[in-house]
Write a structure and sequence with these properties.
With about 280 residues, the protein is an alpha+beta fold. The protein has helices at about 25-35, 40-90, 115-120, 140-145, 275; strands at about 1-5, 10, 95, 165-170, 185, 200-205, 220, 250-255, 260-265. Strands 7-4-6-8-9 form a 5-stranded mixed beta sheet, covered by helices on one side. A two-stranded antiparallel sheet has the order 1-2. A two-stranded antiparallel ribbon has the order 3-5.
């Protein structure tokens, strides 16, 4: 509001605030109520209960999300190993590395090497080329594989284990005996079935890992080494491949086939039958 005075012209009128006496009673009551109001113990407990409920709902989802991320990483590792095996075979007359071959550690033989598949595929999956004179040296191989996360499943129970995958080393070109059941390499054209139908590399059973240097078992070749027996029953005592009750990846596992492609399957006798590993010995 502006007031006109004859001698001073226009003079603004300042509004003043209500005094405590002039303040309306209803407004004063609200101010007092707000100033004195506090949470009761019941209200606090209700808030705490709601927060606890939200945490209980969200934590399993977060845990599952982390598990899925680890499963994807493991699957990615095996896809990379499969591609590496395919490149290896292309450069080595159709051969792929498998298990160990006794007495063949010489550069003139394709069957040399104790940790055959890990050593031979290393340069194809981001690792170094390993001299043949070192591929039976556990300490040397441990130091090499330790720097190669592609060989390590992030969900494996032994975090210091450096090679958590293993290879099918069963000799399939002949009727095996106790002395010649394991082989160091195979030519894809000599396999008893097409390479795309035969299990090559997969996940290791965490219950049978070797204790020495967190490094040891790297292949399988006996009937008792695979997940299910000829009758579809779980192998338990000596199984080296992933166990039937392993839920590190929610009951699934990724496997590489001899042609280099990889698949994720349920750990069941229907999806992982005995013939998937050993097709000529049913």
């Amino acid at each position: 509001m502006m007031l006109h005075t004859p001698d001073r012209g226009v003079r603004p009128v300042r509004r003043r605030a209500f005094t405590l006496v002039e303040l309306p009673f209803d407004r004063l009551k609200i101010i007092r109520r707000r100033k004195g109001k506090a949470f009761t113990l019941v209200e606090l407990l209700v808030v705490v209960a709601i927060i606890a409920l939200l945490i209980s709902i969200l934590l399993p989802s977060l845990s599952r999300a982390k598990g899925i991320a680890r499963m994807v990483k493991c699957s990615t590792n095996l896809h990379a190993i499969g591609r590496g095996a395919h490149m290896y075979s292309s450069e080595n007359k159709g051969y792929v590395p498998r298990g160990m071959a006794y007495g063949c550690n010489n550069p003139g033989s394709i069957n040399f090497g104790y940790y055959q598949f890990g050593a031979k595929l290393a340069p194809y999956v981001g690792g170094p080329t390993i001299p043949f004179e070192y591929d039976e040296d556990m300490d040397y191989m441990y130091d090499v594989f330790k720097e190669m996360p592609v060989y390590q499943c992030p969900s494996f129970r032994e975090p210091d284990y450096v090679l958590t995958y293993l290879v099918n080393a069963r000799r399939m070109e002949i009727n095996p005996t106790s002395g010649d059941i394991e082989t160091g390499a195979s030519r894809l054209s000599n396999l008893p079935v097409i390479p795309a139908e035969l299990y090559y590399i997969g996940e290791l059973n965490h219950l049978v890992v070797a204790a020495r240097n967190h490094f040891g078992i790297c292949d399988f070749f006996y009937d008792s080494h695979v997940t299910f027996d000829r009758n579809g029953q779980p192998n338990v005592a000596y199984v080296r491949t992933i166990r039937f009750d392993d839920y590190r990846h929610f009951g699934r596992t990724t496997m590489v086939f001899f042609d280099g492609h990889a698949e994720s399957r349920n750990i069941t006798p229907e999806e992982m039958p005995f013939k998937l590993f050993y097709p000529t010995y049913e």
